[in-house]
Amino acid sequence: MTKKLKVGVIGLGSMGSTHLDIYAQLSNVEVIAIADSIQSRLDGSSKAEGNISGQAQGGVMSMDTKKYHDGMDLINDPEIQLVDICVGTDLHFIFVEAALAKGKHVLVEKPLARTYEEAKKIVQLAKNSSSNIMSAMCLRYWPAWVWLKEAIESQEYGKCLSLNCKRQTSFPGGSFYSSHNQCGGALLDLHVHDTDFINYCFGVPVSVFSQGYKGPSGGIDHVVTNYIFDKEKFSPLVSSEGTWTMQEGYGFDMSYTANFENGTATYLLAEKETLKVFKSGFEPETIDLKVGMGYEFEIRSFVDEILSGKKTNIDLLNQAAETIAIIEAEKVSIETCSVVAVES
After folding, report:
1. Nearest Cα to 68, choosing from 104, 49, 96, 41?
2. Please, what are the domains in the chain?
3. pTM of this structure
């Protein structure tokens, strides 16, 4: 019988529940413990909802696992090999630090940490650890975005001249999202996806110019950013918009438009998912995408990394930290209405 990786999940909100759904599909892992400070989530009498169709489908009521109220008790469980951290952003650092200190592998939900300073410390901890750690930046694994990354790198349609990303939804509600000190507002919790993907494709911008306004979190909950790259190198026109200030009932959508020298790609995930490519002189082409969400593919990739004995991809982890530096520059840009250099 194949030896299974023993997993413990801390935090049973929408992302923790989504991760549990995915682990249930994998033959090479076994979830042996879960933790949440909310008893109704721990016993399965209540569960959080996701904002994308297909998230958080299952429950924990029928799970035969150890159950902890304190995530630190789960980390101290000697049987657990992989700790999956889905707690509030402001708690990421202390749980990651504790898990790595116990020699556990770590999957930590996005963003890597609440601040760039904490994120840099996590990168340093990872460099000094024999354990594997991944920051769950799911767009890097989302089929439509994998396609875009490959199109930019291969230059199949020529150089990428411009990229605009958009992510819009209603306010998710709840005490965590109502405190920007904990979640960082939509700026850090939602918009971080697109900022990270832009960093993934083009590297850290020289500076940013952002505009936005405060919303129900008390922090920046609607942002529009222009990312400014080195003019001495090839410098595409890149921007993104993120908000959770839409009226109740709006739902969720994410999209991008990428304009290349010889083609234009448009993607939209709303009620359905569509990716099309337009080329002069040709009929529009609808791209067939791999079925599945980024959460599934990132977890499969990380489990494979651990079981195959590969070391942590420090470049990707460091990139997740750099993304928070970009976000923090965006916040300053909004507050000062000025172009702000990015620290990295």
Report:
1. 41
2. 5-137+296-310 (3.40.50.720), 140-293+325-341 (3.30.360.10)
3. 0.94
